[in-house]
Structure formats: C-alpha cells, structure tokens
Amino acid sequence: METITLSNGVKMPILGYGVYQISDLEECERVVSEAIEVGYRSIDTAQAYGNEAAVGNAVRKSGIPREEFFITTKVWISNAGYEKAKASIDESLRLLQTDYVDLVLVHQPFNDYYGTYRAMEQYYKEGDIKAIGVSNFYPDRFIDIAQFSEISPMVNQVETHVFNQQKQAQEIMAKFGTQIESWGPFAEGKNDFFANETLKKIGEQYGKSVAQVALRYLIQRNVVVIPKTVTKERMIQNFDIFGFALTNVDVEKISKLDQEQSLFFSHYDPETVEFLTGLGK
Asked: Fewer CB atoms < 10 Å away: N or C end of the chain?
C-alpha cells in the first residue's frame, strides 16, 4: 500500500476504507472484516457514526497486529470543549479496543472546537493519539485554527471528488503542512457520477471502471481517499488502483469536470449551520 508522510513523520495509507452510514453494528463489523481481508489497513470511523465498537471488533478479530492498522475517528459537535472532548476520546479508545488512535479529527468547525483541539493536542503529546487534524474546515476556519493552535493540523478531511476538486483549499493546506483527505470521493453518485462519459472513456483505455479512474485521479494529486462500499467485489475494485497511471492528457480532461462547489452542503449557508449545530445540542 502506498503511503503519504504527515508533517510529524507518521505514515498514512493513501487509500483507506470508510464506514459512514453503516450504523448496524453487525453489518459494519462484517464489512470491515471483509475490507481487511481484501487488504485495507486504514479504517475511517467517527463518534457520530455509532460504529466505533464494530470497527474495534473487526480489527481485534482479524488477528493482525494493531500496529499494522491506521485507525481514524472524529470528535463530534456534542462532545466539543476541552473536558467533554477528553471524555469522548477516552470512550472512543474503549470502543475501538485500542491503547491509541492513529488519527483523531475535529469532525465539524462548530461549538467549542478550540477546546476540542486543545484536548487532542494533550492526548497527542501523551501518545494516545499519533496524529491530529480537522474535518470539514473550509479555508477561512482552517487558516484560523492553523494559525492559533500550538500544533498545526496534520490532516483536513473535506468533500473532494471530480466535481469539487478542492484545488485552492489543497494549496492553502500545503502552506501549513496539512494533508488533504477526501470524503465522498464518488460524490455519493450525484451528478450521475458512475455514468460520467469523461471518466468512462478514460477508463476504457486501461480496462478500469469510472470509480477506479476517479480514485486514481485523486491519489495522483496526493489526496488521501477513503471510499465506502458494503460490497466485497467493489472493495476489491477500489483497492486495485495502483497498477496504472493517468496521463497528463487524462488529468487535464478530468480537471475540467471541477464545478468548484459542494454537491452536499455549505458551511456558509445559515440553514445548514443551524441544522448541524442543532445536532450538537
């Protein structure tokens, strides 16, 4: 598995497996176990997903040494603030059945995320967290926390796919030594993603699917990806993206698909902010 090196020297797989919206614990444990069988070692979960325990069970039952895994979780809005964040991280460690988490992110830029981040910095210094970062931080709030935190975020996980490529945001992150990570690399099928003619035609040259071309495009831009699927065949397909490379011509064609806006929500929209902050009460 190819890796990227975070600003503190920690190596992170450039391809991982995401478990968003797999709330049934039995199903989540099953699919994570299958992903591990396929070869995935980076697993991305979150407190808000309600499936940390299932991820912990699958990792433990795999029999593979813990140090071979890269586990990510995220502190939810309702757990924001220094003391509450510490308690929630302790609970995440318990549910994940591990002595440390490889990466912990502030899930959303709302509530007392500065207090949350200070708690994460403390756990990082104590070795309970190997790397820290943020998620869904747009450039304005990202720059703010990067400028005023003791430890600059090592990762920022944001919506990134061919229709919203985050090129400017990636450049800003790079100034602070922060690695961009994609959530929703398939845009959850929006914009008729899997039937996109540009991606299909490029894929035909290599005998690859639309999904494989989309993932390959992102990793060639040094974007970490965590595609989610509950089908083992697609897990295998998503894993098989290292045996080919896109040409400059391919990259230029895909680059033109960028609409430079979210297909899901905007943190600049008052109704979206009201909805998300309401989830944190």
From this structure: C
Helix extents (H) in 75-158 = 82-96, 113-126, 139-148
Token match 């940390």: residue? Answer: 52
The two three-digit tokens of residue 135, written as one number:
């998620």
CATH of 3-274, one of 3.40.50.300, 3.40.50.2300, 3.20.20.100, 1.25.10.10: 3.20.20.100
Q: Which of 91, 67, 88 is nearest to 78 (CA)?
A: 88
Q: Which of 223, 225, 200 is nearest to 213 (CA)?
A: 200
**For the chain, how many helices (H) and strands (E)?**
11, 10
**Would residue 177 be called left, alpha or beta, if left means φ above 0 and alpha means ψ between -120 and 50 degrees?**
left
DSSP 8-state assignment for residue 4: E
Q: pLDDT by residue (tens digit) across 29-76?
A: 999 999 999 999 999 999 999 999 999 999 999 999 999 999 999 999
DSSP characters over 171-213: HHHHHTTPEEEEE-TTGGGGGGGGG-HHHHHHHHHHT--HHHH
Report yes or no: 196 and 202 within 8 Å, Cβ to Cβ. no
Told to judge if 49 belongs to the known catalytic residues of this protein, a careful annotator would answer: yes
Which one is catalytic: 40, 49, 113, 217? 49
The pLDDT tens digits of the residues spanning 99-116 come to: 999 999 999 999 999 999
Contacts 24+ apart (CB under 8 A), 265-272: 267/109, 267/136, 267/138, 267/141, 268/138
Rounded Cα distance, 278 and 240, in Å? 40
3-state secondary structure of 8: coil
Please indicate if the annotation marks 107 as binding a ligand. yes
